[in-house]
Amino acid sequence: MQRHFLDFEKPVLELAARVAELKTSLADGTPTAEKHLVQEIARLEVHQARVNRLLYRKLTPFQKVLVARHPQRPQGPDYIAALMTDFVALEGDRRFGADAALIGGIGRWRDGTPQGTACVVLATDKGKDTTSRVARNFGMPRPEGYRKAQRLMQLAGRLGLPVVTLVDTPGAYPGIEAEERGQAEAIAGCLEVLMQLPVPVVSIITGEGGSGGALALAAADHVALLEHSVYSVISPEGCAAILWKEATEETVPQAAEALKLTAQDLQQLKLIDQIIPEPPGGAHANPALTIRRVGQAVAAVLAKAPAAATAVAVARRQRFLALT
After folding, report:
1. Lowest-confidence range among 58-62, 112-116, 155-159?
2. What is the CATH number of domain 65-323?
3. CB 257 within 8 A of CB 203
4. What percentage of the chain's residues is helix, strand, coil (to nearest 5)?
5. Per the confidence metrics, is the pTM higher than 0.90?
6. What is the 3-state secondary structure (H, E, C) of 7-36?
């Protein structure tokens, strides 16, 4: 798949285009020109990698928001396919229907042991293309999604299985039909279940952690963010629209700065427990390495977690009550 470049990545895009052009010339050129082209391509690729690293070391909060929203970041199904065995998806909330934005089920997390660790997994899915994004409501669960989450969390509690959540959502779906079916109550129900769940809960924010829609899945004992992920009570655009009455190219970055939504900010505020490094250029630049690092991070936490959640673990979840 051809890489999609963000606006601030223009220097990298220009170098990538030049490399592609030279590779085309190399394929069509004469043997006498081959050595020079190979050397130039190698030089430009080294320079491109260096520029890429420097760009990603100095990202502004709003640039991190853009990276977190990148359409080529790994999604829930990618993590499940690579990191789990014997996964069985469980559908429906037993009240209304199935929700395609939230995947849930039971499987074994690959942790280096022959069998893996049995757990319940909940993962949001934004989709990969226009058709799948519409089908999955752009990763925004409806009430039936959150009620499915409650059902599976309670199942995990009865079976004594840890819960792992992989969250990448702009937030809960704000449509009229969602409100009619009790969106706020469904989110509150998830939080209530999490506050009392007698098993370990591990949550990874893999992209966007938006508002209560993310909090309903990520009020966990152990919360980790990928390096360029974000976790916030509101989007920068929504914040700017409230504070400055308009979301513009000037106000939205200001809002992102004020919200303290980056992984680094949240770690300083002691609201999260871990930052998982991303490859140079972001998770979308090397999805396989990103997925492997997430798998290792979760496996390390599960290996240390007791079979039953201790009072300390439950108390750690309750730090999020101050945010609701």
Report:
1. 112-116
2. 3.90.226.10
3. no
4. 55, 15, 30
5. no
6. HHHHHHHHHHHHHHHHHHHHHHCCHHHHHH
